[in-house]
Amino acid sequence: MSAAIGNTIVSLPDQSTAQIPKRNYINNEHGLLSWLLTGDHKRIAILYLISITFFFFIGGAFAGLIRLELLTPQPDLVSSDTYNKFFTMHGIIMIFLFLVPSVPATLGNFLIPIMLGAKDLAFPKINLLSWYLYLIGGTLTLAALVLGGVDTGWTFTTPLSTHYLNTHVITAATAIFVAGFSSIFTGLNFIVTIHRMRCPGMTWFRMPLFVWAHYAASLLMVLGTPVLAIAIVLVALERLFGIGVFDPTKGGDPLLFQHLFWFYSHPAVYIMILPGMGVISEVISTFSRKRVFGYTAVAFSSVAIALFGFFVWEHHMFIMGVSNYSALVFSLLTMLVAVPSAIKIFNWVFTLQKGSITFETPMLYSFGFMGLFTIGGLTGVFLGSLGMDIHLTETYFIVAHFHFVMVGGMLMAFLAGIHFWWPKMTGRMYPESLSKLAAVTTFIGFNLTFLPQFILGYLGMPRRYHAYPAEFQVLNVLSTAGATVLGIGYMLPMLYLGWSLKYGAIAGDNPWQATGLEWQIQSPPLTENFVEIPVMDHEAYDYEWLANKTKNEVITVG
Amino acid sequence: MGLSPVLWQFLVKWLHASALFPAEASGISPYVDALYFFLLLMTVFGTLLVGALLLVFSIRYRRERNPVATQIEGSTLLEATWTIIPLAIFLVTFVWGAVLYFRIYNPPTNAMNIYVVGKQWMWKAEHPGGQHEINALHVPMGQPVQLTMISQDVFHSFSVPDFRIKREVIPGRYSTVWFEATQVGTYHVFCTQYCGTQHSGMVGTVTVLTQDDYKKWLQQSTSGMSLAQNGERLFASMGCNSCHSGNAAARGPNLAGVYGAKLTLTDGSQMLVNDAYLRDAILNPSQHVTAGFAPIMPTYQGQISEDGLIDLVEYIKNMQSNYRVQQTQVTAESDQAAPTTPPQGTNETVKP
User: Does domain A5-550 correspond to CATH entry 1.20.272.10?
Assistant: First the structure.
């Protein structure tokens, strides 16, 4: 550990005698099959972690190629068709194969049963099935990519996707359809587990906010994803059999697709961000040694986001000739959905007040999250405002906005969570100073990449443009330079986390001195999580309870 | 300095040519920019507030200065504050944005109309006087201009950033947008909705001319036939005039002066006759039967291009009497050899 002892809450066991527990979920069984056929939520979480990391770097490579092409105004690196395939693959992979499953399927899968004091999720086999469906979805996406790619954009706008493109639309659509079911099953599993599997004493308001956030996100997954599935099936039917659902020359309505698509894809934004918000609640509380300010407000704001999130989809269509009055209603609802996010931000900030704050890596990522998510959220208000949206929509402003929320928000939260629970998942610490460097690099790189895009957007540079007017070049060069720094920021954790698997310091049960149930058991946990069913006799984030409990305890490992 | 002067000059020129803020070239631009600066201020203030709180708390309550945390449940008063104040700001934004939206999308009554057809991957503008332009649009300064737009294939979106306007161009239905240019100059037109391979090539320019220059341009660029004249030809060649002749015994309703009127359909509903209604009635007549008439009109779906439809709409729009309809009918009847069914294919051959 590089940080001075006085500056940190990290309490590692005596490193001369420390050992990884002899029995744990990782070494309980051996062989590839014991992983591929496992029902253990922790092992499935690890499977997910490996697969989403793989897809993250593929999606990231496409982002790099896009930025490289945009270094010059001329379309000189690749052909237009190839460029269109780049941003389509980037969108599909990052959204459906990385962001949607990122926190829920890895950290959520690993932690929700433990946080609730349960042995596993309600349906372990469905949980495994969900990973296989994800894998099939991922394989089909790769197949579409290898066979020649797809260039619909991740939004699959009709009638472009149904009648005007000769690429592998059906393959990609099937991939999303299948991956959607993986997400439905995960959501279903979480909802049932949270309702039925809480340990004695674990009332709804004693659950960690991480669980509340996942509960809200699961509701969205279960209720929203089927609509996407229907929309995709209709696209396939129209493309394969010429059924006129969306094609105006056959009496279809091209706007209907947009309604169906955004009815899922707006809530999907909350599916992506809510679990991240859950991570932030845990991290902020732990590193300020203080319960989350206004627990109920944070819990209910998650549910409020899930609820309002279903009634704002038309704000993606303000310029598409929808009725002016329906636009009014949706703009108003959009303003309302911004409020719970503002509540959360301020509650987190005030959690710090009168705390006893330390600045470990997860905390740095969380600070990054709060700053960037604030900007991302507030620029969303620009787009929810009807008159402003006309000028800003379909430009780089919107690209910058959703990257601030999804990358600046969600990816920061994901990395905060990965670092925070890494000792629990692997039993070993990541290298602290290197990871702090990565967090700062990511933050700087991110801002350099996406702040210029706001300016580009107001100038009117359209998104998905292969070539652009020369006067936009300076800002694009800045953005590409930032993306390079950002890329390094993401490569670093990949390297040192891999290194730490073998060489990291032994973490012990509760290196952060955190209150969650997951920190009261050994790291890595036993396959059955708990030796005996725990009884919850205190609220989440009760640091006094923890202080009493650990007063006379000697940290032993092994 | 080790930097070569050539490189230095290049950098200076490059940075100088770089854009940071779009021109305010339309009547609406200052209003949009005002809201933008308000929102920008809100964002900067919000971000600085969060940043400042994080910084102050991080310094004041860091482990070294505050070794023991004070547990606080929450505070209803504080939480109400940060619920109500953002809500109030967002509601102001909502009202402001809504007012602006209606302003941008509701044209004034004196707006002149230009048709725009979007197709993969070009913009075609058609002026009522018959001037056609590809990826270009000439408009007069200080005159409200309404664009009636339609796509021939996929979704496109017509965007002029320097005018702060944008509207989706949709297959199968007209959409409109209007602006009043306030500065002479040339401005970018972008297609902002992803529309396939050459999406980023679907760009053009709007040229704003003074009123005099615009008149000159109109005279120089005319194709000799106005849209309405083209429409009149189509009206006769497709046989529309045989039913819509305006005679008392005619099988179709009288179209003279029908534009802007309220029609009662056979199902009892009232419809305002506008561009969109006329287009739909030609393509999908069985859904638009005027009360008192039999549903005998065939559909013209697939037989007439969007340009042809625009010609017909423009013709019917400007039809004040049936005098010329009946004249063309006489001409048509004098030529008995002419087929009475509408010709197959598009109308492109009819055009000069």
Answer: no
